[in-house]
Phage holin family protein (Pseudorhodoferax aquiterrae), 140 residues
Amino acid sequence: MASGPRSAAPGAGPVGALRRMLSTLLDLGHTRLQLIGNEIQIEKHRALQMLAQALLAVFCGCMALLMAVGLALALWWEQRIAVLSILLVLFAAAAIWLQHRIRNRRAMQDHPFAASLAELQEDLRQLKETAQHAPPQEPR
């Protein structure tokens, strides 16, 4: 039996474990950054779509209201003060109702990065669990 220094397999021991852990952490970080990048793109696309649709809806709504007011005034010219008063109350009530709906919708919306945050929390939970169950290393 040779009594020379004990030869260890490459990647064994604390240095190898540290390298594997750093490699795993880098892989996790890379994956999470890709996920965040994808979510940012999706949220940007969704926000631009909603903005374009909202602007178009506002334009069409304003044109329709303008035409409706003109038609109501033409039909009931003799009662134009009453017609304008009724339309003012209706438009104000509609504006208040729409504002209330917008606030409720924004409050119910999910966080834009909910999937990334959930994955990061799961990674942290697993790392903590692994650290708690790791066998203690023997001193040399």
Notes: Residues 37-110 form one domain.
